[in-house]
Specification:
The structure is a homooctamer. By secondary structure, chain A is α/β, with parallel strands linked by helices. Helices cover 38% and strands 18% of the residues of chain A.
Chain lengths: 233, 233, 233, 233, 233, 233, 233, 233
């Protein structure tokens, strides 16, 4: 199931690219800058694309000391490297929709992730349900997408409306944006889980990475399908 | 501040009709059939309209033994009597909108309450956001209403969409309809409290009565306004 | 349903003033100072009143560089501009009541909002239920109001008492003021949702803006009523 | 610290009457009828007053087969026996106040408990804050009490108002009465814990027994005081 | 956006089949048997496949009185009709995996839904993580699937392990199976939302329908792709 | 019911000393230093003892500029003044027990409050249940107390053990001390509310003031008792 | 890692006895009687001890039709068979302590489990902390035990006191016994997780089986130890 | 039950080493540096090993001023002294496993604690379930351990997988590592409590100390066993 590199404090899973079609992603929260840099070096050295999420500037500075060409996106809080290794694989366009301007950092994390997995990605910001015509006026753009990620805080109602308009998978990402009783994204999370629109699935609060990755898998020509096609007469 | 009738187990507040413009309403949960009937008699005898909520058939049977002409609405679970005393007072139409068919019992409680307070009331059922055109095709009807009550379970997204379309007060009523993580209406409640549409206020889960009463007050020509008008040159 | 101005990161909903009778309001939390200023400029340029809530000083400074005459209320944390465009529309006085002195910032946000919507607004601070005579001694002032906003933290009991005294809509605003088991306003929120007084509706924790806006709608002569009265040509 | 009687499934604490001034009380929930009866017999045989709470009819029937004169209160769900052993010990009157009629079963449990501990007890039902004059008109009766128990569901606001009127201890008992977001008494519980009135302490939801017992201790001339008096010159 | 049939208590959205590629699905909870039957008739009459979820026997009996050939699955609690209209559309096999035998009812609802949308579906029951070799011994079967639905209660750990083994979308369905602190599926839900395996998205507790529907969309050749293919040289 | 002094932002309740036997207490959280100082001056000027809780150094400095002799307790975070007006009123000793050293700040707030109400107060720190003999070795000191306040974080078990040993009221104060699943005092709060020892009542998390005040009332010779005893002229 | 028997709806893990030293245990909740019986037959036929938990009488009747000598414990709700295969393996006595009589069903499940794993087990019921001397008088019995299981509802304080008295592992089992704010065992669970006594670990609410099984493992001579012993001279 | 040293603010339990086989451990959260140092001195002076947890650098500096040779572990946040007094007592090896690198601080606290109790301890980091082969490739190392501590955040699935592989006690430690809906470790905690693998017990969130201590007790030759062996013929 693939080789593992033992760094003492971490066991880097180099076999992941074979099993998942994408190398291990570094989650930076709770790691020292040095730990992040050492793992980043291990991944890039083995010839893989680097994606590190929830990174801060200190961690980025440690990474670029050892990994040439590492790039930091301060809004998305991502570090990427070896981008030239990305191969275009998506079968359609992934559309990332946000309810408000304050949801952009989470949306950016999703965009970075999906792009690095080889997908064409488009952004449609600030079309929350309080002004529903902003969304409806772009209905044909929604209907052209292959997978849609909807990022929303507060009541998290936007995925239900989008889900009612399209026949493709909708991934809902609750954000922690909101007044008191949003309880740091809980209200949006529950709203999305209870969506009355069929075809909506949900990821963790503020988890733009998870949405981008899942969208990348959904938009990929499946390995199993290739096999199946090979078996056909 | 009005007279009180001491029934031993209850202190009926006959002054409420003066302070609030509507007599005390009987909340039947946790009361014996006999207690409900005795309070109902006290209210009707003093020349007031009777509204009892959350009533069951046993309580209704006890009431109609002592109050002539009492009527039971098994969907709304309300008992009413002395309806002929209702005076039309509303300054516009109250519109009660539901997201789904399963929300009808709560909506019916709101309708009964608002009607008994003297308001014209209309019902617009099953226009949830998963099929947004059902709502949008009735936009002009929404815009003609004076106050709108929106009843929804699951993610409770409908009030936000309605609130974005109209310039009148929207009262949101979460219902306990939904799968597991609706947590008996909590998801809808939080969604409504976090509505991104301005002008939405919220009542308790399944509290059709509370919504109907508040709508009745909002739709009423205020006593204070009459006074104020009198003082103007 | 109105024009939308695309700023790249935001879609400003200039049609909102037609649908809601008030232009889009800027929620500043999670936005950069530059984003707030650009949106503020878009709103004021199109001839609308500006209201920005949850603003900080940095955001205000960015706004006043581009919007002449912008004013900051550091207690309410609001930025307003184009105030001369405000038209008096209220049909009565909106009264904002607070349980304690610590609830004033939230009350101020409600006051700013309701005033900007064209309403006469009065403030009655620090009349919490632990000294009930402070409230009762002002009963006639309560009864003169057209709509009442009650701002309270801790147990949030004040709206129930106020709601029992008056026949007009009461909007309850829970605040995050309190000891540990207030859970940042949850106790007050639940208290208000469970109010035994009819006619009380609730907004989100610390959401003075939402209360002020809803009160403004309730206190407005409804467009639909004008139609009904046949005043339109 | 007192003798213990081992019944195999239970260890009856006969020393409790010495330590606490009242014998062990039987909590019937989750016990078989036979277990309740055996414990009841052990307590009464050792010459103590019997109080069993949360009892059902089956448990009562098992008890009265073995304990002569046992009495069942179906509203309070209590079984009592050996009442003739009760000695009047209270230094004042304990007043039990309820917000509504539906709170009576919990109030009755408190009344039974406090009476059995030797206190004069009075009941003041249905004086909830939505009709505050019902309470205020009895202010002098409130002020004559030595300890006050306030039983309320829904928002649980009544203890704060009562606590603001009197200079004696107020014990608040939340009940599970209410609509959805009362969450089976949680709203009232949190409200009471956050009471802005000083001197209010709280017991568990629906725990009339706990309130009655604590009130009994507060109303008792303390053993320690007698000692202390004895030691003074 | 499609025609709506007004049944008085319901507005059947006949346009849904165009927007979503599948007709409206009837959620039976909270509806009367008569309401369910009337909606079922409206759907089948308009030439669409019928799927009704959370149905009971009474509702089924009402349906089969008016819809010929309706079939009831008592484990899945589904009613289906017009199955001959189902067109095979899936691009690969959907695999439904369960952690335990007790999760089968939810899994069955997913199977029924995905099959009715035209997908080949396989079931792999009882391979929970406490005996991980049961799962690993079927790794190649996992890797052949096009989309995987993982149904698990208790700690909900299975989707993380499955997600680590495959490069296709994994839809996690928490079930309400478990001891006390599962809190009716909350533990499994939170576990799945926090999955450390990328590519896992989540639906509501016990929502087999939602998982089956989303899997159906993911496994479908996207309409948008056909368009895009048409544009290629 | 007493006079009120209107300070614009606050309504100081000078009648509270008559109703409660102690003047209004200033809760400093959320108030400006200037507001605290102005209220402090109003209270002390009217000849009352000053107690301000949850104060910080800035608020204290503002107070001592206007109130001579004000004293700050940085552990308890209290400001007191006019201490010479305190009259010894307690009928016995109030004992404040803590489970650990980390609970001392909350205990100190209780001590300050009870002392200022005229009670003899003793402190027994760090006798948590993990070393039960520390508590048991002081059993006679426990049994001499008139009222006992038990301050504990973590699992909050100490009040149950103390409550089992004494026949006087026990006031339990949960603190926010503890590891993750203490949830800032929630675990201790729930533990205390569910105490199996009769006679335990509970105040809010970290609310040393509330416990001290309630203990002061319980330890006071009740006004009502004097009336009953006929000692008044 | 052991063989698996595929029953269609279940995959019986016959290798578990090798990995864990005890065969698979049947959790009956959510399974049909027929499913339980089929699994029970599979386990007993393969020469293993049968333990089924959370069983009801219907499930038991189905089992004893196919498994000779199956025994039902209606208090513990367990089915056992092949008891003659139990080998005594424990290195000391497991003591099961309960706070109250109502905790006995959960304690019985632990007793059955630990006994079936080959351990001597003793029961010490009803020694809750409200009468601490009941526990302390049996201190030497506590100190003789090798592992202690403490079963308690309400505030769950007993494990902390026991844990302070002994130098062996204490397994705490919260039960769902208690008044309202026990929230079905949540209060006891949180209390136990926050125990100030070192050496206490916790299992799920009402999970007597889990406690009994863990105690069995702790009390077993470890396989690894045998290896180590082999290395000794 | 052992001597207690009264430090005024603390009662140091010198008898704990006799009852528990390990001296009192200092929990530093909420204590002043001076308090920590004074307690540390008391413990070391009485000839005991010092372990202080949740310490910061200021507290460490105060300790090393008075306790010679005190050592600080900044990752584990522990202070230790008198290490030469540690006596090897463990009957096997304790293995500490982590799901990710970010869980290392909690794991380190467990390692320090178990080592100080005299156990051989090994660390196996970063073998989370998303790359299950990392764990499985070390199965024999897992099976050699005597007790296993599993530290994991996010969904906390690792203990279930480990528990399915071994026949020794597994202690699960949830950490607060994770995205939004981990709710600071709640998701992992609930996951672990609901583990489908038998033999898993749980400690508080981030409580490495508690896990290390419990593992130490489990791995110890029990005093009671020695006694028992001695008493045998």
């Amino acid at each position: 199931m693939g080789t593992v590199e033992d760094l003492g404090f971490a066991a880097v899973d180099h076999g992941r690219v074979l099993r998942k079609g994408f190398p291990e992603v570094v989650y930076c929260e709770g790691k020292t800058a040095r730990q992040v840099a050492t793992i980043a070096l291990s991944i890039t050295r083995s010839g893989n694309v680097l994606l590190a999420t929830r990174a801060n500037l200190r961690q980025y500075n440690a990474v670029r000391n050892v990994v040439r060409g590492a790039r930091f996106n301060p809004v998305a809080r991502t570090i990427v490297a070896n981008e030239k290794l990305v191969v275009e694989r998506g079968t359609g366009t992934i559309l990332v929709v946000t309810a408000g301007t304050s949801d952009l950092p989470v949306a950016e994390e999703a965009v970075e992730t999906a792009r690095l997995m080889g997908n064409p990605v488009e952004l449609m910001p600030d079309v929350g349900v309080a002004g529903i015509h902003r969304l409806l006026s772009q209905a044909s753009r929604l209907q052209r997408a292959s997978v849609i990620i909807v990022v929303a805080g507060m009541e998290g109602a936007l995925p239900s409306v989008v889900g009612g308009l399209v026949g493709v998978p909708v991934i809902a990402v609750p954000t922690s944006i909101g007044y008191g009783a949003s309880f740091h994204g809980l209200a949006a999370l529950l709203g999305m889980l209870n969506s009355c629109a069929a075809g909506v699935t949900v990821v963790n609060i503020d988890n733009g990475f998870g949405a981008g990755f899942a969208a990348g898998l959904m938009n990929r020509e499946r390995p199993s399908l290739k096999q199946r096609h090979g078996k056909r007469p």
